[in-house]
Design a protein that fits this description.
The chain is α+β, with helices and mostly antiparallel strands and 273 residues long. The protein has a 12-stranded mixed beta sheet, covered by helices on one side.
Length: 273
Amino acid sequence: MRNALRIFLVAAVAATPTWAGITFTQVTKSEGGRGEGAGDSVAKIWAEGGQAKLEWDESNNPIFTKGTYMLVNEKGEMIFVNTEKRTYSKFDLASMTESMEQMMGAANKLGFKMEVENPKVEKVLEEPGGEILGYPTTHYRWHTTYTMVMHLIPPMPDRRSESDSVEDVWTTTAIQLPSATTKAFTGIGGGPTMKELRKLMDAAKAKMTGFPLKSVTVSTGSHGRGSHTMTTEVKDLKKTDIPASTFAIPADYTETDMMQPQRGPAMPKLNQD
């Protein structure tokens, strides 16, 4: 699901220097293993220059539900909009990461700790990938392995989980990504316990060029069990004129804070006469 989310957001900022605007549909499907279907989603993307809008038509993610959407401005800032609640919130990756680190720090004090051991990311393939949607592509492949270790409170033994994944990506340089907006999404797929692995992945992919039209990631858990495949594809890509209102927040929407818990209905006062 993290990969799906990362490719969604990168795809949302796609634009070309010669087109007024583009629209396309992003389809993600997850198959096999415990996470089968959890990452499935369909999103419609509008992009022009450094602005973009990504709206989920279908989603199994409890946050990015049907009808919610993400806006990106020229500075690479992201705004999450909830049409049902008529609210909008800043999607601040730095604050989210800081909050996660604080939670992990509190868990560490109790004796729980998660670590990534022996992470390794290798590029094993770079070749012409043929045409997708009429665009020439380059096909990249990476092989990633690591061990996730959960340290529990003694005398409970540590829990170890081996991970092995192969990721294939087809990109095209015919569609460019605004660099300022791309920076806003750096590290969106990784949490505090994955920093070392994320650095290796970023370094391994530093020379990958172009906009991803398709990606397929096959992951295998311990002892070869629980194979899981995540496929993300761009469809219905076309040139179009996009109204400026597409990237505007409705005037009657209320700003909220995604980091604050939402209040439910008040508890009844049972001691009243």
